[in-house]
Amino acid sequence: MVPFRGFAPRRCLLKRIIAALCLSVLAAPLASEERVDLDMVTRIRQEGFTNSKVMETASELMDRIGPRLTGSPQRKTANEWTKDPLSQWGLANARLNPKTKE
Questions:
Q1: How far, in Å, CA of 6 to CA of 26, rounded?
Q2: Is 102 helix (H, G, I), strand (E, B) or coil?
Q3: CA distance 65 to 68
Q4: CA–CA separation, 100 vs 81, rounded Å?
Q5: Measuring CA to CA, which residue among 57, 55, 46 is closest to residue 88?
Q6: For residue 74, which of 99, 98, 82, 93 has the smallest C-alpha distance?
Q7: CB half-sphere exposure, 23, CA atoms < 13 A
Q8: Along the 102 residues of the chain, how does pLDDT read in single tens digits?
Q9: 3-class DSSP state for residue 95?
Q10: What is the distance between the alpha carbons of residues 91 and 83, in angstroms, rounded to a whole number?
């Protein structure tokens, strides 16, 4: 089917107008910026860089306790060890699950 002369450019123009309208409607919410509390971001970064215990925790679990197979003594030791620091860090409900005490 051969389009009529002048019909295709109008249809192409209509598609462009619809596409531009859709993009402007979808991009409007993205244009509004969320206010970022830079002071809080700085405090979080400082806490992570200066007071992080991730390496000590990982070393304790991986180097000292070692591999933890289901039902092994190492698993029980790791579970009990993990509960204690979580309680010290302020988690009020840190406890062992009855299924994991095996």
A1: 31
A2: coil
A3: 8
A4: 13
A5: 57
A6: 82
A7: 6
A8: 555 555 555 567 778 888 887 777 776 666 567 788 999 999 999 998 898 888 888 888 888 887 777 878 888 888 888 888 888 888 888 888 776 444
A9: coil
A10: 9
